[in-house]
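Problem: given the chain below (138 residues), write out its structure.
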Amino acid sequence: MTRPAAYATNILFQKYSQGEPLVEELHEMTGCTGRQCEYSIEGTSINCQNGSGGCFTAKMLVAKPSDFHDAPLVDASAQINKILDNIKPDPHGRKLSFLATNMGAMLAWVRHDVVPSPGGVTSADSDEEIAEALGVTP
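Solution.
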C-alpha cells in the first residue's frame, strides 16, 4: 500500500511540532531522495524509494564535444531532449523518468511522492524478474 504525500507531510509536521529530528523520517516517508532514487515496480505502477540510483530524471545531458561525447552524440542528446520536452505532463502527477536496467534504459511514468510497499521489483532483482515486471523481453 502506498501512502500519499499529504500523509507524510502530516506525520512530519506532528514530529516537528514535538521537537523531534526529521532527517530519517523524511527519507523514509517521501520515498526517493534525488541522487539515489530507486524504482520499485508494483504490479502496474512504479514508485521510487531511496536506493541505488536506478531511476532518474528523463533528460539527457548535453556536453561540449569531446573524444567521449563527439558532435553526433551532442546532436543526438539535444534531439532526444526535444522529444522528451514535447511529452505532456502526466495528469496523475507522475514524473517522466528513465529506469536503468542491465538490458537497457526505459522511459516510464513514475510516482516520486509515495512510499513503495515492500516486495516491489527493483534493480537488485534478476534481469528475468525485472523484464517480467516491465513487460519486456530480456
